[in-house]
Write a structure and sequence with these properties.
It contains 4 helices and 12 strands. Helix 2 crosses helix 3 (177-192). Strand 4 (96-98) and strand 5 form a beta hairpin. 21% of the residues lie in helices and 26% in strands. The strands form 2 sheets. The protein has a 7-stranded mixed sheet. Strands 11-10-9-8-12 form a 5-stranded antiparallel sheet. It has 253 residues and is an alpha+beta fold.
Length: 253
């Protein structure tokens, strides 16, 4: 069965991840996708909210089942699929990944990933929010310096101008969320099946943190890539290395 089918779309919903979890618990197959034009309770990592104006972002969740050993790399594989999809939607764009699972464009956050797994039941839900067509003024004030949209904010090198003609578009207009869904389905199908060695190699090629000074709840240091488990490697003062398997890190400016 093609990844991305069945596809349930809602004009508005609380959270696509919540809808997808309900479908997964009811036995929906691998590759089932839920999208929405608008979310009232969108969630990001660490309990944050994910906000976007109606129709301005791809709000997407997919079911992955059964879970296998290679799916330990889901937090790395999914952002790689988002990077590839964004670059197909807007040729000339070059995306990077920020551990643990954000997608960046020109130093700003383009997309976020929230994975909710139920290993005991053999499934996971992959949630993705990809900013597509949002002007800087449409972002909440606290995000205007850190977020970016693929289209709609071309000034100053932030995003792609609406006047550009991407490969996936209708009559010269930026791709719609439905266009983006189709493209993302194909790239997710590829990266969810990729071997861990391929995932690690591509992640390392796109890593925007390596060599940067970072801080987290218990310390600070210089990011030195990811190890073969997908853990973030950090060189701390004194030269020792620590390995972060979960949590949040911040760039030290």
């Amino acid at each position: 069965m093609t990844f991305g089918w069945p596809h349930r779309h809602f004009a508005a919903t609380g959270s696509t991840n919540t809808r997808a979890r309900e479908l997964a618990a009811a036995g929906a197959p691998h590759g089932t996708v839920v999208t929405a034009g608008e979310q009232s309770s969108g969630r990001g990592r660490q309990g944050r909210t994910w906000t976007a104006p109606p129709g301005g972002a791809l709000l997407y969740s997919a079911i992955v089942r059964p879970l296998e050993e290679r799916h330990l790399m889901l937090p790395l594989a999914v952002p790689l699929a988002v990077c590839a999809a964004a670059e197909q939607l807007a040729p000339g764009t070059e995306c990077g990944v920020k551990w643990p699972n954000d997608v960046h464009l020109d130093g700003r956050k383009l997309a976020g990933v929230l994975i909710e797994a139920r290993p005991q039941d053999g499934w996971a839900v992959v949630g993705i929010g990809l900013n597509l067509n949002i002007t800087p003024e449409e972002f909440p004030p606290e995000l205007r310096d850190t977020a970016v949209s693929l289209f709609g904010s071309g000034e100053g090198g932030r995003g792609v101008s609406r006047r550009s003609l991407p490969a996936v578009a209708t009559e010269g207009h930026p791709p719609t969320p439905l266009d983006a869904t189709r493209v993302l389905n194909a790239h997710l199908a590829h990266w969810l099946e990729a071997e861990p060695t391929a995932v690690l190699a591509e992640w390392r090629a796109r890593d925007v943190l390596k060599g940067c000074e970072i801080a987290w709840e218990d310390g600070s240091g210089v990011a030195d890539g990811v190890d073969d488990r997908g853990y973030l490697v950090v060189v701390v003062p004194g030269g020792d290395r620590v390995f972060l398997g979960a949590g949040e890190v911040h760039l030290r400016l």
